[in-house]
Amino acid sequence: FDEINTCDSMDLLKSLFLDKKINGKRISDGIKLIGACNPYRVHSEEMIEKLEKAGLGFRARDTQSIGQIPLRHLVYRVHPLPLSMDVQVWDFGNIESSTETQYTYSMIYNHLQRAGIFSDVIVSLSQVFTELLVKSQQFMRNRSDEAAFVSLRDISRCVRAFVYFFQLHARIPDFHRRVQVEYNQEIQERNKLGTKESDVNYRVLDKLTRSVVLSLHVCYQARITDRDAYREEISKYFKHPLSLPGGSRHFELAVQRVQNLFVRDMQKEGYIAMNNALTENCFMMIVCLEMRMSLFMVAKPGSSKSLAKSLVVSNMIGERAPVDSLFRHLYSLELLSFQCSPLSTPEAIEEVFERAKRYQNSVNNQSRIVAVCLDEIGLAEDSELMPLKVLHALLEETPSTTGTSKTIPCIGLSNWALDPAKMNRAILIRRESPDKDELIKTARGICQKNSHLLDTLVTGLAAAYYRVAQPIQRPDYYGLRDFYFLLKMLKSVSDQLTNEKSPSIVERVVRRNFGGSDVTDENVQIFIDELGWKTSDTTGPPPVLDMVEECLAFQATQFTA
Fold it and tell me: What is the pLDDT of residue 489?
């Protein structure tokens, strides 16, 4: 019996395990029962505070509880075991460091041996890679957020990711040349801007080191938000046969270059701002689907989760991609979507996975991936039916005789963190709210090829939104989508922007997108201040009825580029 305490029939299980009876009838002595369960444990106050800030955050409600404890305050969404069963519980405890190191080395060595491509450096590479993974595991466990929950699954995924990235150089004949082009473009951009940075950070990494760096990013770095500390720590342990001369900064740039390489060949409609969030979301989705690994994305609304999904689906078309596109060498994708809610049931989630499996078997094509997308998966965590418990089995990887995974990969999009038992069965990516530089980059991407006057307003608009969105009085009342729609509305009327008319037009647009509350006037004043204007430059607030009629008359097509 797996996950025995996720159901609410503990009395029946107690009778079965202790009394050896079911419905009053004794079972045969020849039947031996084994149950696996996660502990009924409450998060620390510090962890609860961290989780409430992850993505959109959450506030536990009394109706979402097991006993007296809210569901989201539990480390695992489980029921407590009856006291009479405690005598039969065997606590595995945590894996010892020395044991984990041995397991890690064994996993790495066996994976590399099966891959058959590292025979000349397999021992030295296994030793260095083992140290990198053990240090990564230790770094994560010392954290006080959901990234702290790691296991041997993470090590196994990281080794598989390393082999994937190394073999990608052979699948895409000119992959190394494409990376070199990215380096050259960065050098030209650096020289153009006059940025002072060591030339060592612009050296092209060898295939071996690049593959290790990318695998560490996918499996470890992407799950945390304060990434500088991780890079500083882990870059100390790159030794022969690996070479990372630029240390932490070299690690960061190497990841950015490959991410940019993946998204550069994407076919995009209109003016889509490929900011850091969208670029990384697309990259992570592509490589996880390619490896047939599941991925959970946790971030606030407006963090480009759904947009990334749409771009990946429209570009992963295999041989139908343009001849010179990187995507022509990748697998094609068929994605089945399921909208989660607090009313979702285990049966409904199982059914969508079954449909995916039937479709995968029907096409019987190794170059096509069939995956499931669970949209708003965090909402299903609030259900007392615990529908996501079925993911424990559905996401468990079952390698086939060819070495690939038979598991249907899952993309989970969430505004909230899930419990560790689920997140540990997939790769996790978390994103915090963007900083001012990221907002400016996004704004320029949305407003590209528009009037010069609008371009001059971008920095002030981004700085104003950054102030308005600070979660002081009303956490997350205004979000990134409000900022994006403000930019798109200004873009739609950019031909009307003049030095005289701009203040009044901007005020009207701000009231449309940052109104609806008792601080609307304060928001308008913040935008006016950041743009360097005076209140007297505007014509004042328009009549409310005019605003309502304008909203109703505004065509949806004007929001598209």
Answer: 86
**135 DSSP β-pair partners:** none
Q: What confidence score (pLDDT) does residue 89 get?
A: 87
Contacts of 64 (CB under 8 A, 6+ apart): 70, 71, 72, 382, 384
Q: Are 389 and 440 in contact (CB under 8 A)?
A: no
3-state secondary structure of 375: strand
403-440 pLDDT per residue, tens: 445 689 999 999 887 877 788 889 999 888 888 888 98
Q: How far is CA 92 from the centre of its chain?
A: 30
The H-or-E segment that residue 391 falls in is helix 391-394
In terms of Cα–Cα distance, which of 542, 553, 467, 474 is closest to 509?
542
Give me the pLDDT at residue 330, please. 94
For residue 548, count CB atoms less than 10 angstroms from its CB and return exposed for 0-12, middle for 13-18, buried for 19 or more: exposed
> Is the preceding omega at residue 241 within 30 degrees of 0, hence cis?
yes
Question: pLDDT tens across 14-57, in order?
Answer: 889 888 898 889 999 899 999 988 888 887 777 776 666 555 55
Query: How many CA atoms does the CB half-sphere of 544 hold within 13 Å?
Result: 3
**CA nearest to 463, candidates 538, 537, 526, 516:** 526
Contacts for 210 with CB less than 8 Å, ≥ 6 apart: 165, 179, 254, 258
Kindly compute the dihedral angle of the four CA atoms of residues 44, 45, 51, 56, in this order, to the nearest 10 degrees. 160
Which two structure tokens, joined as six digits, stand for 82?
């009856």
C-alpha torsion sign, points 419, 422, 428, 433: negative
pLDDT digits (tens, 9 = 90+) for 98-153: 889 999 999 999 988 888 777 788 999 999 999 999 999 999 998 877 777 888 99
For the residues 260-284, what does the mean pLDDT come to?
Answer: 88
CB atoms within 10 A of CB 68: 6
Q: Are 409 and 288 in contact (CB under 8 A)?
A: yes
Joined tokens for residue 68: 């007296």
Count other C-beta atoms under 10 Å from residue 266's C-beta.
20
Residue 394 has pLDDT above 50, yes or no: yes
CB of 96 closer than 8 Å to CB of 138: no
DSSP assignment of 296-333, as one string? EEE--TTSSHHHHHHHHHHH-BGGGS-TT-GGGGSPEE
| pLDDT band, very low/low/confident/very high, at 558 (cuts 50, 70, 90) | very low
For residue 325, the one-letter residue type is: S
Strand partners, 42: 74
- In 438-480, the DSSP E strands lie at none
Q: How many CA atoms does the CB half-sphere of 494 hold within 13 Å?
A: 21
Measured CA distances, 388 to 61, 155, 206, 391, 399 (Å): 19, 24, 41, 5, 23
Q: Could you tell me if 442 and 435 are in contact, meaning their C-beta atoms sit under 8 angstroms apart?
A: no
Q: Quick one: pLDDT at residue 67?
A: 58
Q: What is the pLDDT of residue 192?
A: 67
CA distance 263 to 280: 9
